[in-house]
Design goal:
- With about 325 residues, this protein is mostly helical.
- Helix content is about 70%, strand content about 0%.
- The chain is built from eleven helices and no strands.
- Helix 2 packs across helix 11, helix 3 runs antiparallel to helix 9 and helix 9 packs parallel to helix 11.
- The two termini are about 20 Å apart.
Length: about 325
């Protein structure tokens, strides 16, 4: 399989996984308001860190097995035992790359915080439409900073993507009386959006906060993509992913001064707390599984996306 095809398949898989994560996060924080967005984000980071550590432990165990086999083979053939030349897998990465890995963690924490704020204040369709302008910013930054090619059709795709996002943002000069798309805006407010919220029904400050957060996600994710593509592409994908989740945990932790972590226990957990039958609604019964599963799915999303940018140019 060629590098281009492999990168494309990985990006398709990451887009599908991101859609599942967005649906889950919107369900928990916006549609049913079962958890505060900081609680979901922290759970996402904590589960992701555990998955990264478990993956590294499995890789290290496999390396030990291979090292023992090579050592025994050398003893049998030459009578001299030497240490294996293959280096053991490192969860923290090479020393000379750790600065860039830490910066990738900062970008990762920022992009996640922006995504959860956007999903908390916008309906699902609007938030995803703005957040998925990320390829535009990734391509522009790769062209400006890394000198990667920018073709004529990239201009067409960029313009169409930004125009679509502009219709979702609904700035005053487009939607107020006399605006260019005022008729379309009036028609849109009569329909129910995908997240169950009428378009334009949210308070204005919530709308613009959500828009700013979604745009922040697109830009910070573009920065993370460039770091992966240009600076840390030789690291193991699990190591790159670990720094992102660790950054999320460390960034969200101070917020528990205002949002007590006891909210995690409000709907019970699979191993302790209230049983399924004790939940007041069927939705509450699934909440613990949804807030745990979101971390596992998001790990796969980050792994596929990081691997794609390691394989091919941004």
């Amino acid at each position: 399989m060629g590098d281009v095809l492999q990168a494309q398949l990985l990006m398709v898989a990451s887009a599908l996984l991101a859609s599942v994560v967005s649906l889950d996060a919107n369900f928990l924080t916006h549609q049913h308001a079962l958890y505060h967005w900081t609680e979901v984000l922290f759970a996402n980071g904590a589960v992701g860190v555990l998955v990264c550590v478990a993956t590294w432990a499995a890789q290290y165990a496999a390396w030990r097995c291979r090292a023992r086999e090579r050592y025994a083979r050398r003893v049998r053939t030459s009578g001299i035992g030497r240490l294996a030349s293959e280096q053991p897998p490192s969860l923290l990465g090479a020393r000379n790359n750790r600065g860039w890995l830490l910066l990738r963690g900062v970008f990762g924490a920022s992009e996640n915080a922006c995504a959860w704020v956007a999903l908390g204040y916008l309906n699902l369709a609007d938030a995803n439409c703005i957040m998925f302008t990320n390829p535009v910013f990734t391509g522009l930054l790769a062209w400006l900073l890394l000198g990667q090619r920018w073709r004529w059709y990239d201009n067409v795709l960029t313009l169409s993507s930004l125009l679509g996002a502009l219709l979702v943002v609904r700035p005053p000069f487009l939607t107020e009386r006399g605006g260019i798309f005022n008729a379309l805006a009036r028609e849109g407010t009569e329909n129910i959006a995908a997240g169950g919220v009428p378009l334009g029904a949210e308070p204005e400050w919530q709308h613009w906060l959500g828009v700013a957060a979604a745009a922040g996600f697109a830009v910070t994710l573009a920065g993370a993509n460039l770091i992966i593509n240009a600076k840390v592409h030789t690291e193991h994908t699990n190591t790159i992913t670990f720094y992102m989740f660790a950054g999320v945990v460390l960034t969200v932790w101070p917020s528990f001064y205002w949002v007590p972590p006891a909210g995690f226990l409000a709907h019970g957990w699979p191993f302790f707390g209230r049983s399924y039958e004790q939940h007041s609604t069927r939705t509450e019964g699934y909440a613990p599984l949804l807030i745990t599963g979101i971390g596992v799915v998001f790990w796969w999303f980050q792994y596929c996306r990081s691997k794609a940018f390691q394989v091919k140019n941004a």
